[in-house]
Amino acid sequence: MQLKNQTFTLLIPLKDLSETKSRLSSVLDINSRKTITFGMLKIVLEAAKKSNAHNIVLVGTDDSILEVGSLFDVDTMIPKGDHLAHDIDIAVSDRKQLGEIPIYIPSDLPLLNETDINQVMESSEFGQKVVLVPSSSDGGTNCISFNVSTNFSCQLGENSFQKHVDECKQNLIDYEVIQPKGMLFDLDTVEDFNKLQIDHPLIFDSLMNAS
Fold first, then answer.
1. For residue 104, which phi and psi values (nearest 5 degrees)?
2. Confidence label for 152 from pLDDT (cuts 50, 70 and 90)
3. Where are the beta strands (DSSP E) in 39-89?
4. Mean pLDDT, all residues of the chain
5. How much helix, strand and coil, in percent to the nearest 5, is found in the chain?
6. Running DSSP on this structure, what letter comes out for residue 147?
7. How far, in Å, CA of 152 to CA of 78, rounded?
């Protein structure tokens, strides 16, 4: 179901695969880390394409993103910011200027499905409020639907979720916190890796053998 005439754009950042998932280096070599990163990206993009979103943009740090975008037939952008969160802010500003509602989604959500994404869009009230989804493990933020009227900065990493909530409160920005089931788990640490293997062995096996 399309939501009125608003255009939602999903912004999915992807680091250089040679630098990916360094916190898993004690259990996975670089090739295995690339494999699992690529497998999670496929899951996220499949969910994105099945959702009610209108546009999908991979946000990268260098030209390596172009090949990935071509492979999955999605748009790409290389903002060249100072860091990943800055890249997202640049992409968000660019999409707002086009009259779109930008939504940030990480590329490492192995349980994500289109229903989760649709729930975020519906909760945004057509871009009138910020929607935040917390990570279940480290206090991070696993999704942001940006509002269209006021500035709201993206912050990533541990405790970013509380920082986002504080920013909304301090600047009187209307916001909502939701917890779509498939968005809460992100695979970033060895503990996450072990949890996925135990709780979702079929998904774990498919990621370890992704191609």
1. -90, 130
2. confident
3. 55-60, 75-77
4. 91
5. 45, 15, 40
6. P
7. 20
- Is residue 160 within 8 A of residue 139, CB to CB? The reply is yes
Q: Please report, to the nearest 10 degrees, the dihedral formed by the alpha carbons of residues 74, 58, 139, 157 taken in order.
A: 170
Longest dimension (CA), the chain: 48
Q: Which two tokens stand for residue 67?
A: 């090949």
Those residues whose C-beta lies under 8 Å from the C-beta of residue 4, and which sit 6 or more positions away, are: 126
Nearest in space to 140 (alpha carbons), one of 119, 164, 113: 164
* 167/61 Cα distance (integer angstroms): 26
- Nearest alpha-carbon partner for 129 in 140, 112, 107, 144: 144
- Identity of residue 87: D
Query: What's residue 2's pLDDT?
Result: 43
Extract the tokens encoding 102: 């930008």
pTM: 0.93
Element (H, E) at 69: helix 64-72
Cβ partners under 8 Å of residue 40, min gap 6: 107, 108, 109, 110, 187, 207
Is 133 within 8 Å of 141 (Cβ atoms)? yes
Tens digits of per-residue pLDDT, 43-75? 999 999 999 999 999 999 888 899 999 999 999
Residue 2 CA: distances (Å) to CA of 6, 125, 136: 8, 13, 29
| Residue-range domains of the chain with CATH | 8-208 (3.90.550.10)
